[in-house]
Fold this protein.
Amino acid sequence: MSNKTPELFIEINELNIIFVAGNYDDDLNFSILEKNISSAEDFFNNELINLSQAVKIVKENVEKIENKIDHVFKDVTIILDQFNCSSVNISGYKILNQSQILKENISYILNSLKLTISESEKDKSILHIFNSKSVLDGNVIENLPIGLFGNFYNHELTFFLIKKNDLKNIKQIFNKNGLNIKKIMNKTFIEGTQLIENNKDTETFYYIKIKKKSSSVSFFDNSAYKYLESFNFGTNILLQDISKVCSISYETIENILNNNIFKKENLEKDELVEKKFFNKENYRKIKKKLIKEIVKARIEEISNIILFNNTNTSSFKFDTGKIFVVFEDELFLNNFKDEFNYYFSKKFKYEATSLNDFEINSLFNKAAHLSVFGWRKEAIPRLETKNSLITRIFKSLFE
């Protein structure tokens, strides 16, 4: 085992609070030592943080891990999935008149854009900043064009924001447990970088996450995280539809789906759901095709709301790329994967791929890697330091 100091990572999502402790070896590869998963039921009260319960949950779980590995943590890295982050794309420019682009030119643009965001979004704080695009005289530049000559330089940034009150509550929870927050990371950003690394040559794509109670759409443009939008429905709405139309309980529906009977491409016209799935309610003669048609109609509506009829994503068009649809509830993926792929690729003609949710260990390993090495398109991670923003930008971009 490495003798490096253990690090603590905590994920907060709508179902669970996940506590992970691990350490880095001499090559900075992260290994998980201990992991605890606690229900988020007592953490939130109507989607607001129950502070007293949250402090208690963190205290109990961190102490369990500390006792097991004989180490007391002073710092923590937070992964957020519950809180609705927002994104803002904004551009700045510099007229060059055939002069050279200097570090000072770019730092001035970045600082000006940050100031604009701070003044226009007074109730929010910055989590992430990404270099979305650099354009010199109409040509997109992959890296910062410091030292190049030109007439006009445009720099686009994407800011990911969180409500200041939410950030205040999060800090309070961990401060009361003697933990300093080193870094806060958005979970969809981590997952997006995993998709990029697992799918070579795919750097521009939509990432749609369908959870049990909510959904989201993200857009990555040439590896830069550019957009995030959340929705207050998930696979729960499919359960509601089936239950309402067929007058059967959620438990019966899950019994049916657990047997993956909808994986068949062609169902017989009058093929009925078997009696064996009705454990705690009276049997009803329900055609399998009816359930499938109910789900297909709702999937088409979901695809339109999230992507195709969404004015917020209308500007994010691309020539080649993919749409990744990731599911928290594998029952719907196992039964209706083809339907989701069809409806999410139907209008844009992009390739849609439906996937299982990310495995916990791999997600934390990726988060640990990003916390050390950063991401190539991230202008500056949100660090809890006393450095000014402009100092941190300089360090991230130029060191």
